[in-house]
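Hello,

Following up on my earlier ticket. Below are the two sequence lines again, exactly as submitted.
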Amino acid sequence: MTQDPLLAGLAALATDAPDGLLERIAARWLTAPSPLGELSVAFTGQGIAYVHRGEGFAAAFRARAGRPLLPADRPPAGLLPALRTGRSSGVALDLRGLSDFQRDVLLAARTIPRGEVRPYAWIAAQVGRPKAVRAVGAALGANPVPLLVPCHRVTRSDGVAGDYVFGAAAKERLLVAEGVDLDAVRRLARARVFYLASDTTGVVCFPTCHNARRITAAHRHGFRSLAQAQEAGYRPCRTCRPALAA
Amino acid sequence: MSDIDCLDPVRKALLDDLDGGFAELFGAYRGVVFSTALRLSGRWADAEDLTAETFLRAYRAVAGYERERIAALQPRAWLLTILLNIWRNCARTKSRKPPPDLHEEPVDTVDPRESVEDAAVRHETGDKLAEMLSMLPEDQRVAVVLRHVVDLPVHEIATVLRIPQGTVKSHVSRGLRRLRTLGGVQ
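Thanks for your patience. The regenerated structure is below:
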């Protein structure tokens, strides 16, 4: 086009953008099966960013993340098994845009194993803000990645499942499907029992801790508070760590 | 605004569907935006950041635009205006405070696609010119990059920089003259 070597040299400085760049800008989305039916899932190069049930997914994601949302070819690693089994700790999450407090709350909720529940106060204690129980509830209510951060495993201590992003009924359904005996928790709560201890191990747990579920009736002792259990000579379980919520 | 059919495919796609249109927009202008970012900033990693930020801001802006405004958009000039704003702001804040954002992922400093031979060739030819470009005053560098690296017509550069066409031409010719001096007899 031009004979001038300088102009030719300048024109040769043009280059195409690297291929992966779009993934840093746009999120991808797909639908995936779950125990609560089909969910819409948005993810970025960092991990899963948003899980939505029902109508209005794209608009909700846009309002939340302000990123373009393009269809995905394939699901991100680990998503489908995590939704199927409820074991989600291996799935990468993109929690950018959340406050530090909310992020801490979600990461704490993520440590609750399948089939177990913890009180809101336990999360508050985990994140070092023992008095922020209501704020914990609000942070969990705004969980952008339900199921992958199992906020449904945080329940009221009276055995009522409590509020949930996808509705209280869905929360109960999920917990029952995961093997949590909510009826038993409620029965205990009515009897003012919030901790179970074993006189063979000398350990006191939350009622749904897998260590508590193994205690046979003859050796099981219920306590209203952790302090009472400790007075009776029991030490807090190192797995479910009830000491945190006391 | 009355005749949507005579619009270019990018704007038509943006009017149809914001997200699909964004993919078109990115596909059509990624090279122009990235090349400009690379030759202005001089660093591959910075160019990636600038390009990503430019398209992200463009998406957020266009999400709030009326249909008429999208139809009247000049996508290339608009994107480059956004890029230049970000670049100038970055350069300004960088000179004030250097700490990086810890939440962002680390970035590579080289083009990962490039082979060793390509890198060697580029080192001998492009790098020298790129380095000379970075020695130009900002006005001239921007004008030369837009005119001769990404091949924008003068009137579009005038739109991007919001200066008269005559001023664009004088920035370009002064920049070229300086490059020739810097490079000896090119």
